[in-house]
Amino acid sequence: MLRIAIQKSGRLSDDSLNLIRECGISFVNSSLKLMTECTNFPLEILFLRDDDIPGYVADGVADIGIVGQNVLVEEGKQELTVEALGFSKCRLSLAVPKSTNYTSVQDLDGKNIATSYPNLLQAFLDEKGVQANIHTISGSVEIAPGIGLAEAICDIVSSGSTLISNGLKEVERVFKSEAVLIASPQLTAEKRQILEKLLFRIHAVQRARRAKYILLNSPNDKIDEISRLLPSMKAPTVLPLAEEGWSSLHSVVNEDDFWEIIEKIKDAGAQGILVVPIEKMIV
Ligand code: ATP
Ligand code: MG
């Protein structure tokens, strides 16, 4: 049995639980329980505060975990990283009141900065050669300038709307973060094997998220040209249509290249293009 630690309730929770579900792993999720055992995979889920996850995994209380890089690196445990998961993307930024005339990071020299991430901030300031007084507070960092605690803050930003509603402006990006899977360095061979199985499924889910299944009709004399424009896992599938002179082409395209490809194949004569999501993808 492998034990995974995920955030009990917060910005990582839904995406972490969804990833486990999309891997085809079932469990009963009761918000009252601290732990739940999966029914069809040797996995036990432990629900924790996100700040506690790196420590639990480092100590081997949990075997693996899902946590933000911001918390992991702040706690000096980045060596536990297995791989980035692509969700909960955000950044740690410095912000000052809107009215502040800010020109460069040197302006922060000698100033008071409130943050929940003193280590990440200190590393950034050291790199820039700036000396400031860091005030570590555990929450509601954005109100610090308003109550006279600090001239600047360093906090997590995604859209920036929290900053704006508190009369602040983002001036420096300190750290870029996303959710990562972490693992204890001392897993037994048996647990390592379960982790490999889980990773295999996670990769299939991640690949499928980026890929789309595409079906289109092509005049037979355009099949070669259109096939060359279509990326695919091996080569596109070509099936005859009931209508003489036409075929149906099936393939897989990457979300990122999607619009560009659609335009090109339309110009080449493709018709009736259908694009559908893929649930799992094994290469
Ligand atoms: P806990 O009660 O578990 O300690 P928390 O309040 O410390 O929770 P959350 O606000 O739920 O933490 O954020 C958890 C993680 O989600 C952050 O450490 C960060 O990696 C990421 N995150 C935070 N804010 C955002 C955001 N606005 N958009 C995307 N990801 C975010
Ligand atoms: Mg926390």
From TrEMBL:
Pfam family, one: HisG_C
Cofactor: Mg(2+)
Pathway participation: Amino-acid biosynthesis; L-histidine biosynthesis; L-histidine from 5-phospho-alpha-D-ribose 1-diphosphate: step 1/9
GO biological process, one term: L-histidine biosynthetic process
Gene3D superfamilies on file: 3.30.70.120, Periplasmic binding protein-like II
Single GO MF annotation: ATP binding
Coiled coil region boundaries: none
Subcellular location: Cytoplasm
Regulation: Feedback inhibited by histidine.
Family to which this protein belongs: Belongs to the ATP phosphoribosyltransferase family. Long subfamily.
Function: Catalyzes the condensation of ATP and 5-phosphoribose 1-diphosphate to form N'-(5'-phosphoribosyl)-ATP (PR-ATP). Has a crucial role in the pathway because the rate of histidine biosynthesis seems to be controlled primarily by regulation of HisG enzymatic activity.
UniProt-recorded name of the protein: ATP phosphoribosyltransferase
Organism: Pontibacter mangrovi
